[in-house]
Each structure stands twice: as C-alpha cells, then as structure tokens.
Amino acid sequence: MAQIIPFKAVRPTRDKVSLVASRSYQTYTQEERDSRLEYNPFSFLHIINPGYKYHKVLKGKERYQMVRNRYLEFKEDHIFVQDEKPAYYVYKIVNREKMVFNGIVAAVSVDDYKSNIIKKHEDTIEYREHTFKDYLNTVGFNAEPVLLTYPDNDELKHIISEVQKVRAEFEFTTTFRDTHYLWIVDEPEDVNKIKGVFESIDTIYIADGHHRSSSSVLLADDLRKSNPDFTGDEGFNFFMSYLLPESDLRIFEFNRLIKDLNGLSKDDFLMAIDPFFRIENRGITVYHPSKKHHFGMYLDGEYYSLYLRKNQYKIESSLDALDTQILHKTILEPILGITDPRNDTRIEYTHSKMGMDHVKSQVDSGTFKVGFGLLPTSIEDMKAIADEGYIMPPKSTFILPKLRSGVTIYEF
Taking 80 as the threshold, does the pLDDT of residue 253 lie above it? Predict the structure, then answer.
C-alpha cells in the first residue's frame, strides 16, 4: 500500500512561473547560465547558484546556506507563495515532439522506499548521496520532483482527465518548446479519492532521481535519530515526486564511446569479440540495432553489426538479459578493461537524441576509438530488474519527461 500524500506547495505566482522554472543546473552551458543569471532576476538558477550575486564560487555548507537565503528572499519578495491547503498537483507536459505526459505531483513516504514498495533499478554513489543529504538538511526543501512510475490505472486516468477540463493554474512554454500545465486538486473529496487509489497500488518504480530519493531517506534516518519522539507525519518523512503512469513514460538509450582499444590492434580487437558476436561489416552504411541483443559499432571509419551468440553467453536473470549488461560483460570489461563504468574516464555516454552520427563524428575526430549503439531498455526490463533486486549498469536509460525545478517546492 503506497502512502502518497498531498502537501502545501510553495509555488511561483502565475505571472512569474515561466521566468522562475529552470532545467537542471548541469544541463546549461556556462554561457547559458550566465545569460539567464544576468537577464532574468526571477530564474530559479539564482537560488541554486547564490554566489553569482557576489561574483564568487561557493562550495559546501557555505553554498547550502546561501541557497537557503536566496530561497527565503524569493518568498519575502512574493515571487513564491505557499498554498493554504494540502493539495495534489496534476501536471501535464507536451514536448516539442508532441509527446504527452500526464501525472501527479505529491509527497511520497521514505518508509515505502525502505520497504521496497518504491523500487529502484539504478545504483547510487555514496558520496553523492551524503553530499545531497547535507544540502537538503540545510536548505529544507525539494525543488525538483523525483520521477516515479506506476502501473496504468483507469481510475487515476479518469480523475486526471476530469481535473484537466478546467483552466490550468499554470500554463507556460519553455525555450525548448515544451509546454507545461499545472492544476491544483485540494477539495477534500478529490484529495481522498486520489489518496485511496494510490493506497491500492502495491508497487511504484523510480524512473529518474535515484540519488535524490536515497538522500531524502538518509536525511529522514538522521532526523528520526535526533527526534526520537517522531510520529512519522513530519515533513522529513516524505519527499516530492512526480508520479506518471507507465504508458506515459518514454525510455531512450545511451550509446557508448571508448577512448582506446586497451592496447589491441583493430584486427586483434575484432578477433577478441568474435567468440561472443557474429560480426558483419556494414561499411559506411549506418547500422541501428533493431532487436534485443543486437548492437551497432563504429570503428575505424566503418559501421559493424554485432549479433550475440547466445550459445556462448548464459542468461540466467533479467540483468543478464539486459543489453547494457551484455555489452559490459562481453566487451567493455573483459576486452577493453573497463571494470568501473561509473568512474572510468575512458568511457563516455551519449544519449540517443545525438544518434550514431555523433558517435561517428567523435570516433572520426580521434577523440574516441570505438563507439557502440544500443536499443532502448524497455519498461518491462526496468521493472523486472527492480523486482529481482538487481541494479542496472550506469546510463542504461535516458528517460523522459525531464522536469523543471522551482514549479512546485516541498518544504520539510
């Protein structure tokens, strides 16, 4: 039984939401960040990059406290206001490719994470968990929801559809030409109906935001220890999420680029992978895999198709059957010597929007020696791995939608 609750969101005023909302900090180039900070005084980037005001790079606890200060200034200036009643927030995104995402922003329980009602499929890096935990402890809010997905539910679909029949509280389009809509659901009857439907759902999956969710759980553990009389209803026992039905989720692949052949010549490398793959030289014809366990490769000016020889590779679990795991276990680790794909500087990941043309250009430039193209991981693969308690290799999924920071804020 999932505990998905309403909360009193802190939100930008309707006239400023398009100016406030921002992408993840890391997705901007330095030039883009500087431009937004210089010309848009309402951007959420001013909160998460507070040193800009003093032309200073801030780090650690000093930065966290300044983030908190900038956030409070936005509230004092009435750029942000807080809702008076706990609410669910129906959120719709229509992107430039006309993909439509309909979900609900709510607060979810850290206990559901700990008891595996909320399941993960991706590993986390310990120092990043603790760094973000310390950040959350100082700033006291979530500004970007963790993306969760649940099995399609007709009752929730009907509720969302009915809510969207009236004018949205927010409607704005970004420079990426994605249009965002938000409706407030705060009438007690509607709130109880949504809460009841979520309570009937046995399992929810993290689609994107593993570090943010795990950091929230670590923080809750710390605050529970320092507040032994906690009831479980305190704000720190929850974290903000955007819950999306599985049919709305879009999963794309990350391709792989490798800087060298680990001391092998081209011919020796091809011979080394031959026991595991049927290799066909496609020349200058771009090859995109069309089936699971098929891979594209670009090497020395030519494309290759690689078909897994299944009699040479044992599939005994959902993880074994995952294409990113197959590539790692047959080529990246044993032949190219990449044992730590999270931290090895010889490997880089490029998402599918950049395509195999980008892989080709990077190899042709000499920056990388070989590139691999994959099929997207399916939602069924992701769920099976989470259900069996396995962890995917890094960058196994590139997931849409990508959410904006500062549209709804959860204070805890």
Answer: yes
Integer Cα distance of 140 and 85 in angstroms: 20
Helices (H), 17-153: 17-20, 30-39, 45-48, 60-76, 110-114, 126-139
Indicate if 324 and 217 belong to the same structural domain: no
Check whether residue 22 and residue 112 sit in a common domain: yes
Q: Which position has the token pair 């605050």?
A: 223
Give the pLDDT band (50/70/90) at residue 262.
very high
User: 123 with 391: CB under 8 angstroms?
Assistant: yes
Residue with tokens 């193209």: 373
Q: What is the pLDDT of residues 62-97, one digit of tens each?
A: 999 999 999 999 999 999 999 999 999 999 999 999
**C-beta atoms surrounding 36 within 10 Å:** 22
Q: Same domain, yes or no, for 230 and 350?
A: no
The answer to whether 114 and 218 have CB atoms below 8 angstroms apart is no
95 alpha carbon, distance to own chain's centre: 16
Q: Is 384 left (phi over 0), alpha (psi -120 to 50) or beta?
A: alpha
Q: Count of CB atoms within 10 A of residue 11's CB?
A: 23
Are both 86 and 137 inside the same structural domain? yes
Based on the fold, state whether residues 31 and 80 are members of the same structural domain: yes
